[in-house]
């Protein structure tokens, strides 16, 4: 998968976790600026995304422990671990892009 696909999946998963469906928003990107509403802060968005990733990984860990103890069916364990794997791959892709952007900034002539 390429980065844009992972990014879209991550945004969709974050929206699902918050109970937001794409058809419920009813607004185009950038509509907050047009209506006078304050756009979400980048740091807050990043923190929310990181917290959602940690929560997903914790749920997968709990599902794996429950699966080993025989308290969870294998299907739910595999689903939780697959979601955790996707979350980890997305976090690694974002990290790589941040490092790449930082290196591009360092290479800029002064």
From TrEMBL:
The keyword ATP-binding does not apply. GO terms for molecular function: cytoskeletal motor activity; structural molecule activity. It is found in: Bacterial flagellum basal body. Pfam families: FliE. Its main location: other. GO terms for biological process: bacterial-type flagellum-dependent cell motility. Keywords: Bacterial flagellum, Cell projection, Cilium, Flagellum. GO terms for cellular component: bacterial-type flagellum basal body. Signal peptide: none annotated. Belongs to the FliE family. This is Flagellar hook-basal body complex protein FliE. It comes from Futiania mangrovi. The lineage of its organism: Bacteria, Pseudomonadati, Pseudomonadota, Alphaproteobacteria, Futianiales.
């Amino acid at each position: 998968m390429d980065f844009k696909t992972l990014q879209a999946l991550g945004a969709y998963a974050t929206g699902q976790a918050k109970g937001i469906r794409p058809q419920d928003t009813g607004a185009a990107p950038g509509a907050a600026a047009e209506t006078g509403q304050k756009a979400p802060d980048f740091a807050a968005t990043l923190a929310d995304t990181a917290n959602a990733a940690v929560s997903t990984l914790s749920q997968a860990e709990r599902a794996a422990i429950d699966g080993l103890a025989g308290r969870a069916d294998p299907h739910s364990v595999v689903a939780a671990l697959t979601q955790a794997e996707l979350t980890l791959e997305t976090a690694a892709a974002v990290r790589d892009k941040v490092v790449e952007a930082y290196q591009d900034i360092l290479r800029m002539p002064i």
